[in-house]
Amino acid sequence: MTDTILETRGMTKEFLGFVAVGDVSLQIRRGSIHGLIGPNGAGKTTCFNLLTKFLPPTRGEIRFDGRDITRMKPAEVARLGLVRSFQISAVFPHLTVLENVRVALQRARGGSFDFWRSDRLLRQYDQRARELLDDVGLASYAGLTAGQLPYGRKRALEIATTLALDPVMMLLDEPTAGMTAEDVDRIVALVRRVAQGRTVLMVEHNLKVVEGLCDTITVLTRGRVLAEGDYATVSRNPEVVAAYLGT
Ligand code: ADP
User: 110: domain range?
Assistant: First the structure.
């Protein structure tokens, strides 16, 4: 097992000749929390789409856990354990919090939606769903519908439905966006907890969160890697200050 779990070489995405992501080579260390930051339009979302195969790269190579995933489909990379949270994890507002996690578990195991016909299977999913809700601090919300959850708690539910896929590596897309300070603290603690035994790559605008959570940070501007390193290193880089932190 190598130290690098996700690696890109020369990853490039052009839209009609416009370079959204240009020649990005990333190395994400197994077990680390890696931050991807940069001003709006820097190419962060496009990177996530490339890594999770929602977009094919124009050029370059992407390797995950020793495999070339450059030409794989999103479902295939998810099965390998590279899973994106938030934007794709479906939360059904009319189902209860518990049912949402149960459905995610059931889908992760590839069955159909009529699983409740089997009592034994239902009890297994139920038990595992309750464990996951406990892990993300939502045990007492199990019976509410997802639509009734406060915003910050919805994000925790999305993490629980992502954990149902048993990811090796999680991609978190702005986990604290739009949250109150109290919610931010809770999500930071949660990310730290779910990162144990996994790798996390996160796009995050809140630099306090990045500083507190990320071991390594890649700064993108205009589709290119501007700087990389720990928070102290990148935040002192004059180019980063000019391009991002100073704005
Ligand atoms: P970020 O997430 O860092 O804000 P994006 O990855 O969303 O940046 O966008 C990077 C650049 O690529 C932006 O200039 C954006 O307008 C452009 N872009 C993103 N997706 C498309 C697309 N489907 N077609 C054309 N241009 C795109």
Answer: 88-166
